[in-house]
Every structure is written in C-alpha cells, then in structure tokens.
Amino acid sequence: MAEKRHRKMVVSEEAAVRIRQCQSALEPYMSQETVERHWGRHHREHLNSLNTHIAGSELNEMPLEEIVLASYNKGDYLPVFTHAAQTWNHDFFWQSMKPGGGGRPSGILLQLIERDFGSFELFLKEFKTAALTQFGSGWVWLTYKSNRLDVGNAVNPCPSAEDNKLVVAKTPNAINPLVWDYSPLLAIDVWEHAYYLDYENQRAEYISVFMDKLVSWDFVSSRLAMAFARDEERARKDASNSEEDDLVLADSAAREMFLDSDDDGAETE
Amino acid sequence: MALRASAARKTLGNWFRVGKSMAVGGLGHRQARGLQTFSLPDLPYDYGALEPAISAEIMQLHHQKHHQTYITNYNKALEQLDEAVNKGETAKVVHLQSAIKFNGGGHVNHSIFWKNLKPIAEGGGEPPHSALGWAIDQNFGSLETLIQKINAEGAALQGSGWVWLALDKEAKKLRVETTANQDPLITKGTNFIPLLGIDVWEHAYYLQYKNVRPDYLKNIWNVINWKYAIEVYGNEVA
C-alpha cells in the first residue's frame, strides 16, 4: 500500500523533475516565478491533499486517472475529486509545453486538425476564443472525442469511426474531459494564477504566447497516438466480448432447451 | 404566425423599456442612442489608500482593467440584446444570457465591493455596532465567529467567486453565502440583500498574496467598511 502511494507521488514527480530542471526554461514567456508558484505551490498542494485524502481508502490502490473518474462519481463528486483532477490537469499542462515550443503540428495530427476545423488557423482561432471566453477559473482542451456512453444495463451504443473527431472543450475549475470519456490532447490552464504574475489581466496575450511559443506539438501527437491505441484496444475488447456474448447466448439457449425438456418431463410425470 | 411574432416582439420591447427606466441608482450609467450604457464608477479613495491590506497595484488593475472590462462587455451584450429583442431573435436573446450574467454580475459585484472597503484612517475595519452588530451576535454568536465563517467559506470556494454576508429579508436572518464566478448574490434568491461581498477571484489578491488566499481574507477585515453594511441593513429592516 505504501509502495502504491509512493508510485502515485512518482506520477507527479516525473513532471516535477522536468519542471525543476527547467523552472526558468520557459522564460521569457512563462517566468520562473510563475512556474515556481504554479508547480511548487498550487500543483504540489493539490498532490499533497490528494495523498492525504486517499490514504487508507480503496482509491489509494488506483491509478490517478481512475481516481479522477471514481471521485467524479458521475457528477456528484467527492471532496477528493478537485485534488485528484487538479493533480492530473497540472501534470498534463506541464507536459503540454516545452522550451522552444509553438510552431505547427504535423502528420496525422495536422491532417485531423484540417479535417475537423477546416485549417490550422481556424483551429487556433477556435482554441484561443474558447480560452478567452471561459468564464472564471478553468481549463481549455484540445481533445479527441471517441467516447462511449455509460448506459448501464443496455448495450453500449458504439460510435462509428466518423463520429470520432477533434474537439475544443472548456471545463470549469477542476473538471477535465476524462469525465466525458474524451481523450485530452492539449491543455491550457486559464485559472488566473497561471498567468497573472506575467500577464496580469491580459489573458488574451498569455493565450497567444502559449500557442505561439510554448505548446509542445510532439506531446499532442503522442497523446493522439495514445487515443488511437485506446480505441483499438476497445475495438479488440468489443470483438472478443461479442464472441463471448455469442458463446454465452448459445450456452444459455442450450440450458433453456434443457430446462424446457426437463419441465416437459415434469409435466408428463 | 406573423401576428404572434410581432405581438411577442412588442411585449419584449416593453419589458426592456421598463427595465431601462428602472435601472437607476448608484451605478454609473448614461443613455446613448436611447440605450442605457454603464460606465466605471469612481473609487471613493485612492488606489494606495488600502495598503498594506491591498496593494495600490492590485486596486488599480482591479478597478481600471477588470471592472472596466466587465462594464465594456456588459454594454456590448446589452447592445446585442437590444438588437436581438427588436428583431425578435429569441434564440439570440437566450444566447446572450450567459454574457449578461457574467459581465453584468461582474459590474454589480465590483460596484458593491468598492463600497465595502475603506482606508483604516477613515474608519476601515471598525467593527459594527448598532442594529447590525446586534444582529451579527444574534445570528452568529459574535463578530469573530462570523469572520471565521466567512474566511473559511471564502478559502474553501473552488475556483473564482464571491463570499457574502447576506440579509435574508424574508427570514429576517443574516447568512453567509458564496456565489461562483461573477454570479451576483441575487442568483441565490431575491430575498437576499448583499451587506458585504468579498472577491475571492485570484485577481483580487494574487500579485500580493500569491496562492495564500487565507492571508488575503485575514487582512481584508482591516479595511472593511462596516458603515456601508450598517446603512444597507438599516434601510432594509427599517
């Protein structure tokens, strides 16, 4: 148990090590002071609160993403949700940037951006507008939407490949797109603490600089690959489940026949 | 069908005119092209007058930039609303509600906030006596307990928002309430009258207090203008 808890620290410590090595590496676009505060205080305090909350509970045994989903509790969220989600969100945010970032995406990512937004420029416009118009604290994401609905006892409606697409999403406070079963690809933190020391009330300038100078398209591409892999894995599971279902069906049909014949026998006795 | 649409337009138009003529009071406003617009109210003290509780830099940005932006965007939204109402574009009218709530709320809240503050030399932080002081003791036990409650709820508020000392004029009780983002207190019910509102958006304290919101909440009591709260309370319960 202690080992597992330590492992969770490591999830964030990996990002922490990167950040510690380069707290000034995002200068002049994001100051060392901002990174020290944001990573060293805000992020760390969420991580510490998370660890305090989950100590000794069954959540302690789960990976961070599962804690986020379990504590989201289908919208009726538990107190630990804020800390779990904000720990995850900040990890993701730090990875969304790199020194010498910005520029244009490439490969399949660019193709999908052009397919789903019309052009890279139109995507930028939509993303920046979303980040500027998120009322209050929150996050703005580029996500790959290939979600499944959780419909309990019904057969899960299976979206076709054409339903899967890139989507820009805004989330308030600690919420993230994991709770909708979307795959996050890129995050910008639009809580005021993310930019206030450097840009004061000029959120638009922070957003522009983030997209022009900081965003790590390598990371976004790697997350897109993970999203594809998740879809493939799910498709594989679906295929094997439907085989299993067929078997179960065949088996229960056989049992029914057996019971029927048994009953028939009872009646004739 | 055309008749009904025009009747609806007329009703909405009338409602809007009534709304305009009723919108008078302490908030800066003026008429332009027949449409009411709002302007930034002056502060009754200098930007540096609340130091050391709140720095001059914060006050200036908060007033000149943040409050001004809410007003600018509120005016913009009102203009669009006027146009949409006149054209009978109900979907557009509905769409504008979130911008009106956010920016109009920002204007309402900040207009109250500036009046809730006062330099120490002018009586800021002086505890309330009179009817309000007595009501605080009745409702919360003591002023200390009330302050602790407001600080605790303000610190626990997730994201951006406000913490209020409210008068519930139906129950005739004082309450501590919080609202998210720029939701004004009235979103919690028309029975609530704001006596005191504290801004817990990060822009209200970050340059000075950074991530330590509880310190901001602790220090702001040194510059709270209880006279304003006493006056509002007196007018409501009289």
From TrEMBL, chain A:
Keyword Transmembrane helix in record: no
Enzyme Commission number: 1.15.1.1
Any one annotated GO CC term: chloroplast nucleoid
Obligatory cofactor(s): Fe cation
Residues holding Mn(2+): 38, 90, 189, 193
Enzyme class: oxidoreductase
Substrates-to-products reaction catalysed: 2 superoxide + 2 H(+) = H2O2 + O2
Pfam families attached to this UniProt entry: Sod_Fe_C, Sod_Fe_N
Sequence similarity: Belongs to the iron/manganese superoxide dismutase family.
UniProt source species: Dendrobium catenatum
Domain Manganese/iron superoxide dismutase N-terminal: from-to ranges: 24-98
InterPro entries: Mn/Fe_SOD, Mn/Fe_SOD_BS, Mn/Fe_SOD_C, Mn/Fe_SOD_N, Mn/Fe_SOD_N_sf, SOD_C_sf
Segments forming domain Manganese/iron superoxide dismutase C-terminal: 106-223
Hydrolase listed as a keyword: no
Keywords annotated in UniProt: Metal-binding, Oxidoreductase
Protein known as: superoxide dismutase
One GO MF term attached to the UniProt entry: superoxide dismutase activity
Automatic annotation (TrEMBL), chain B:
Amino-acid positions noted as binding Mn(2+) in the UniProt annotation, renumbered to this chain: 62, 110, 199, 203
GO-annotated molecular function: manganese ion binding; superoxide dismutase activity
Domain Manganese/iron superoxide dismutase C-terminal: 129-229
Top-level enzyme category: oxidoreductase
Superkingdom of origin organism: Eukaryota
Cofactor(s) it depends on: Mn(2+)
Major subcellular site: mitochondrion
GO cellular component terms, A-Z: mitochondrial matrix
Keyword match Manganese: yes
Keywords noted in UniProt: Manganese, Metal-binding, Mitochondrion, Oxidoreductase
Residue stretches making up the Manganese/iron superoxide dismutase N-terminal domain: 37-117
Enzyme Commission number(s) of this protein: 1.15.1.1
Statement: the UniProt record of this protein carries the keyword Oxidoreductase: yes
Subcellular location: Mitochondrion matrix
Pfam families assigned: Sod_Fe_C, Sod_Fe_N
Catalytic reaction equation(s): 2 superoxide + 2 H(+) = H2O2 + O2
Matches recorded under InterPro entries: Fe/Mn_Superoxide_Dismutase (IPR050265), Mn/Fe_SOD (IPR001189), Mn/Fe_SOD_BS (IPR019833), Mn/Fe_SOD_C (IPR019832), Mn/Fe_SOD_N (IPR019831), Mn/Fe_SOD_N_sf (IPR036324), SOD_C_sf (IPR036314)
Function in brief: Destroys radicals which are normally produced within the cells and which are toxic to biological systems. Destroys superoxide anion radicals which are normally produced within the cells and which are toxic to biological systems.
Similarity field: Belongs to the iron/manganese superoxide dismutase family.
Assembly and oligomerization: Homotetramer.
PANTHER family in the record: SUPEROXIDE DISMUTASE 2 (PTHR11404), SUPEROXIDE DISMUTASE [MN], MITOCHONDRIAL (PTHR11404:SF6)
Protein name stated in the entry: Superoxide dismutase
Native organism: Dendrobium catenatum
Species classification: Eukaryota, Viridiplantae, Streptophyta, Embryophyta, Tracheophyta
Gene name for this UniProt entry: SODA
